[in-house]
Amino acid sequence: MPSDDYTVHIVDDEEAVRKSLAFMLTMNGHAVRVHESATAFLEFAPNIKSGVLVTDLRMPDMSGVELLRCLAAGKTMLPSIVITGHGDVPMAVDAMKAGAVDFIEKPFEESVLLDALERAALQLKQKPVDSEDLASVRQRFELLSERERQVLNAVVAGLPNKSIAYDLDISPRTVEVHRANVMSKMKAQSLPQLVRMTMAAGFGPS
Questions:
Q1: Fewer CB near the terminus (10 Å): N or C of the chain?
Q2: Is the whole model's pTM more than 0.85, yes or no?
């Protein structure tokens, strides 16, 4: 839920995107501050008492992953959400390893970002970032066949179906079937959710 206790900091090099996100979040009750670059945000970051970061992954001065690493190095890490374009899944996974709470693929529905902010806000209250029960996730993982685990690893690594099919010497259609089975058995509604569960449970590519 929106709260006066924290501010959502939007970092994106495109003014139209900053304004659009700021308007949407403000209309939903969030306090918002925009930053035109990762560098500008890093200069402001020490002043933040309680905030959540929403940053684009690809920016000219510094990537979202580099931004998170700089924040961590400066001990000013914030609960962060990374917005990524299609095909950037490996970089998004790197962002989560660097401390991001979530990543969202473009284009996305308004509710997706709002839900992600709610999860990020939980971290500010020192509650579990993810509502997923790790024991339950691990039990689901055990239900996967060896082939399904191979497909899971490849999907989380950001490989397209054709590449997975080539690497595993199976047809793209078979990959689609295994991928659907993985999503069903893991009870994942989206790729970002599958990545969150996989990383939280310690599975997937290193």
A1: C
A2: no
